[in-house]
C-alpha cells in the first residue's frame, strides 16, 4: 500500500472506530441490504423474480446487523434463520451470503468462544446442506461458499488477536509509565535523603567547631587576646566553609551558577581529608592523625563524597561528645574496598549521663547517617567502643572496578 493511500485510510479508520456504533452498524446493515439487492436489480437469465416475501427475507439477513455489537449471538441467530429461508424460498436465492459473512466476522472478533465455534460449525453445515438442495450447484460454488465462511471467521480472529495485542501493548505502556513514575519518586526520595545527610553533616560539623571556639573565646579573651582572635577567626572560617558547601548543594538544586561558576562543583572526596583533619585540629585543639596504607584506587563519585562525609561526621561526634585529646583517621586500601576507621580516646559509647553516644543531636542522626551513606554505596558501617577504649567508627566502601566506572 502506498504512503498516499495510508495517509487517508488510517485517519478514516480512526474516525470510523470513534463514531457512534449504532450509526456505523445501521449504515453497514443498509450496505448489506443494497449488496444483496444487486442480484434483483440485475437478474440473470432464468432467475426467479423478486417478490415482497423475498425482499422481507433479504431484509431479515441485514437488519439484525444493527445490533451485531450489542448482542452478537442473537444477531447471528437472526441472520442464520433468514439466510437459509431466503435460499429455500428462491426469491431469488442469495449468490453471496453478505449478512452471514458479517456475523461470522463479528462473532470471531468479539463473541464468547463457544458462541463463535458453535456458529461457525452451524454455518458450514448449513451451507453444505443448502448447496445440496440447490439446483445445478457446481463444485466450485461449494468451495466458494465454504471458503467465504472460513475467511470471514479468520479475519475476525485476526481482528481479535490484533486488539488483544494492542491492549497488551497499552497495558505494558501503562505499567512502564507507573514503574517510571515509581522510579522517579524513589530517585527523588534518595536525592532528598542524600541532600539532608549532606546538610546535616555540613551544619553539624561547622556548628560544632564554632561552639567549641565560642566557648573557648571568652576564657582567653583577657588573658590571651591573640588566642582569642585565633578562635574567632576559626569560627568565621568554619562559617564561611559551611556557607560555601551549602551554596554548592543549593546551587545543584536550583541548577544555577554560583559566584559566576558552575553550580555543579565537585563535592569533597578522599583527597580533601587532609584539609579536613587540619581544619578540625586547628579549630578545636584536638590532635588528629591521618594514616593511609595500601595503594589508593579509583572510587565512584558518590563513594568519594561518602568517605569524606563519614570522616567528617565521625570527627564531629568526637568533638561534640568524646572530650577526647586524640583522634586517629586511618585509610586502608585493598583491591576491592577502602576501609575507613576513626578512633578517639574519649569517653566511649556512653557519656556520664548514660545516653547513647552520638545521640546528642536528638536522635543519633549522625551515626544513622554514616550507616545510610555506607549502605547507599554498597558498603557497611560499624560503630562501637574502640579496642583501647574511646569510640570507633569503621566503614568499608567498595572501590570501582576501573577508572571509567569511577567516573560514573
Automatic annotation (TrEMBL):
Reactions catalysed according to its record: ATP + protein L-histidine = ADP + protein N-phospho-L-histidine
Sequence segments annotated as region (Disordered): 342-364
Transmembrane segments: 21-38, 50-66, 73-90, 96-114
Gene3D superfamilies, sorted: 1.20.5.1930, Histidine kinase-like ATPase, C-terminal domain
Cellular component, GO, one term: membrane
Keywords, ordered alphabetically: ATP-binding, Kinase, Membrane, Nucleotide-binding, Phosphoprotein, Transferase, Transmembrane, Transmembrane helix, Two-component regulatory system
Biased composition (Gly residues): 355-364
EC number: 2.7.13.3
InterPro entries: DUF7134, HATPase_C_sf, HATPase_dom, Sensor_HK_TwoCompSys, Sig_transdc_His_kin_sub3_dim/P
Domain of life of the native organism: Bacteria
Domain Histidine kinase/HSP90-like ATPase: residue ranges: 302-401
GO molecular function: ATP binding; phosphorelay sensor kinase activity; protein dimerization activity
PANTHER family in the cross-refs: NITRATE/NITRITE SENSOR PROTEIN NARX-RELATED, NITRATE_NITRITE SENSOR PROTEIN NARQ
Listed name of the protein: histidine kinase
Amino acid at each position: 500500500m502506498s504512503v498516499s493511500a495510508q495517509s487517508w485510510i488510517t485517519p478514516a479508520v480512526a474516525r470510523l472506530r470513534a463514531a457512534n456504533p449504532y450509526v456505523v452498524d445501521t449504515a453497514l446493515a443498509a450496505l448489506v441490504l443494497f449488496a444483496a439487492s444487486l442480484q434483483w436489480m440485475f437478474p440473470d437469465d432464468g432467475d426467479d423474480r423478486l417478490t415482497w416475501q423475498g425482499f422481507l427475507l433479504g431484509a431479515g439477513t441485514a437488519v439484525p446487523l444493527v445490533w451485531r455489537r450489542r448482542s452478537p449471538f442473537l444477531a447471528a441467530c437472526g441472520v442464520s434463520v433468514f439466510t437459509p429461508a431466503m435460499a429455500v424460498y428462491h426469491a431469488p436465492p442469495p449468490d453471496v451470503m453478505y449478512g452471514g459473512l458479517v456475523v461470522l466476522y463479528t462473532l470471531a472478533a468479539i463473541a464468547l468462544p463457544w458462541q463463535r465455534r458453535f456458529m461457525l460449525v452451524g454455518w458450514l453445515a448449513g451451507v453444505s446442506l443448502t448447496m445440496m438442495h440447490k439446483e445445478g450447484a457446481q463444485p466450485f460454488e461449494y468451495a466458494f461458499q465454504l471458503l467465504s465462511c472460513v475467511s470471514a471467521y479468520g479475519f475476525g480472529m485476526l481482528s481479535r488477536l490484533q486488539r488483544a495485542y494492542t491492549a497488551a501493548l497499552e497495558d505494558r505502556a501503562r505499567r512502564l509509565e507507573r514503574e517510571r513514575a515509581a522510579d522517579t519518586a524513589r530517585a527523588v526520595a534518595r536525592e532528598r535523603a542524600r541532600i539532608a545527610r549532606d546538610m546535616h553533616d555540613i551544619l553539624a560539623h561547622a556548628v560544632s567547631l564554632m561552639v567549641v571556639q565560642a566557648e573557648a573565646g571568652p576564657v582567653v579573651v583577657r588573658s590571651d587576646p591573640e588566642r582569642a582572635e585565633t578562635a574567632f577567626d576559626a569560627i568565621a572560617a568554619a562559617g564561611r566553609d559551611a556557607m560555601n558547601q551549602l551554596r554548592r548543594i543549593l546551587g545543584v538544586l536550583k541548577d544555577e551558577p554560583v559566584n559566576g561558576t558552575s553550580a555543579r562543583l565537585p563535592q569533597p572526596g578522599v583527597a580533601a581529608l587532609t584539609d579536613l583533619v587540619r581544619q578540625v585540629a586547628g579549630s578545636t585543639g584536638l590532635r588528629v592523625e591521618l594514616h593511609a596504607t595500601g595503594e589508593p584506587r579509583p572510587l565512584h563519585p558518590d563513594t568519594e563524597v561518602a568517605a569524606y562525609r563519614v570522616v567528617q561526621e565521625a570527627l564531629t561526634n568526637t568533638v561534640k561528645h568524646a572530650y577526647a585529646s586524640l583522634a586517629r583517621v586511618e585509610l586502608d586500601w585493598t583491591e576491592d574496598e577502602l576501609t575507613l576507621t576513626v578512633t578517639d580516646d574519649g569517653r566511649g559509647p556512653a557519656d556520664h549521663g548514660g545516653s547513647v553516644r552520638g545521640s546528642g543531636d536528638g536522635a543519633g542522626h549522625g551515626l544513622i547517617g554514616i550507616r545510610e551513606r555506607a549502605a547507599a554505596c554498597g558498603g557497611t558501617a560499624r560503630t562501637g567502643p574502640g579496642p583501647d577504649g574511646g569510640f570507633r567508627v569503621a566503614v568499608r566502601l567498595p572501590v570501582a572496578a576501573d577508572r571509567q566506572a569511577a567516573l560514573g
